[in-house]
Amino acid sequence: MTPNGQHPPAGGDANNPATAGSTTVVGGRDPVADVREAGAEELGAVATIRAMQAAVHTRYGPPEVVRISVLERPTITDDEVLVHVHATTVNRTDCGFRSGRPLIARLAISAFTAAQVSGPLAKGTAFLTGLVRPHTTVLGNEFAGVVEAVGGRVTAFAVGERVFGYSGDRFGAHAEYLSMPEGGPLATMPSNLTYEQTAASTEGSHYALSLIRAAQIHSGQDILVNGATGAIGSAAVQLLKSLGANVTAVCDTKNLKLVSGLGADRVIDYTAEDFTKDEQTYDVVLDAVGKSSRSGDANGC
What we know:
By secondary structure, the chain is α/β, with parallel strands linked by helices. It is built from 8 helices and 11 strands.
């Protein structure tokens, strides 16, 4: 305090300089505390930016085992894309991995997980652990959204672009953000479709294309698709037609018009006709529902 009873200005004055290294309180505020508070707020903001919500399950069971949790966003490498997920699905694959039932499914899950690690000890541990609890805690493999960020070497996609894809055994789509390799099953969305429409189209198409490639189907072949209204069957009809195959599709009465609209050359109503007794021969029968015994397959298969 000055001789006349006044407080000196911040930092002292010519007659009363502030001591080196001291802290001057101005208006009841401590600058050091202000800096610390600002730093804490900044760190909190950064943590919020890096956080995301996700549907997580840490044990096998019914849908009730899934909880919404806060996780750290995925980090991306130079050849990866970060997608802000706008739509995803819960499909049969998700349900099987979540429930771990039947037991054969849990064995398959454990074996698959063990295959992703190196070394016999690590593989054995992963397999045994997978029998008790899930390794993959965030499921979901179908998605549509917007590119949030791209790696340094990515050229096929740009920030803000609408994309869709299939993460397969990477899963992770039941979260706000998902990382995908640039060269993976990721593509630009058609401009006339919504996120919801696009996300729901990928898994069935993935399996249908895998079957078509495995059978080495080509233009001009006669193909029968049993179960043409499911996710796999409906995708198969369209993919086969795009390859130039001659497609006969099997469905029920109410879906005859729908399947014809998908491009099938001929549609069989299984409620009125047994396709296994059809006189037509086929190069390949694609059974998308698994309900036809081999002994009863159509002629020529």
